[in-house]
Amino acid sequence: MHSPPDLVAGLEYFVSLLRNNSYTQAVDVELFFADGGKLKRKMNRVKTTDVDIQLATNMLEQLNEVAPKYATVGKDESNNNYDLQPFEHYIKWAINYCEAAKIDLKVQTTKAEITEIENKIESLSVLAGRFGTMADDTQRLNFVDFFERASNNVASRVAFLKGVTETDRTQAEDYQKKFRTFERKYFE
């Protein structure tokens, strides 16, 4: 007699959650159910935050599809005249596990986001404090006036240097004229 397809599918979903692996086959189900004590320990040890959120979401959808077939008492022709109701507690456990995993993983993600935001707030507070210190120092040391004086100082030096340059050019031209006169007088 072949295993009922809905029984195999439901228990594969159940074992997929225990393994945190969507690729579960009938042999994996057999290995998990071979020793009831190990299965019970695994069910007690597995944490809702250990499962992948995508796996929990996908398994929840698939479990919700097969769950009604486990709720009916009695033999079902689509399942080789096999009564699936004795296995319903595995499906219910798996559905509750998926729903709890989605909640716990969302809480975990939210806590991580809160921590990240708190770190950003702390960093921005330090930057704001530094900016405030710089603004206070700017006013206390009168940086606005400092830069204005520095600009005026540079402008006055440029004007002075232009005057020096003009004087040098005029003197050079005068000496050149005198030197030419000297050359003409003595060497020509």
Kindly list the characteristics that best describe this protein.
mainly alpha, 2 domains, 188 residues, 80% helix
Give the topology.
Blueprint: H1 5-19, H2 26-33, H3 36-45, H4 53-71, H5 88-140, H6 143-187
Helix pairs in contact: 1-2, 1-4, 1-5, 4-5
How would you characterize the overall build of this protein?
It is a single chain. Helix 1 (5-19) crosses helix 2, helix 1 (5-19) runs parallel beside helix 5 (88-140) and helix 4 packs antiparallel against helix 5. Helix content is 80%, strand content 0%. The termini are far apart. It folds into two domains: 5-110, no CATH class; 142-187. By secondary structure, it is mainly α. The longest helix has 53 residues, at 88-140. It contains six helices and no strands. The chain has helices at 5-19, 26-33, 36-45, 53-71, 88-140, 143-187. The protein is rod-shaped and about 135 Å long.
The parts where pLDDT drops under 50 for at least 5 residues are none
Main sheet: strands, sense, barrel:
none
What's the rounded overall pLDDT mean? 86
Overall morphology:
rod-shaped
What is the count of distinct domains?
A: 2
Radius of gyration: 44 Å
Number of H- or I-type helical stretches: 6
Percent of residues in helices comes to over 70%
Order of helices and strands: HHHHHH
Overall structural class, as computed from helix and strand content, comes to mainly alpha
Strand content bin: under 5%
Number of DSSP E strands: 0
Through-space gap between termini? 135 Å
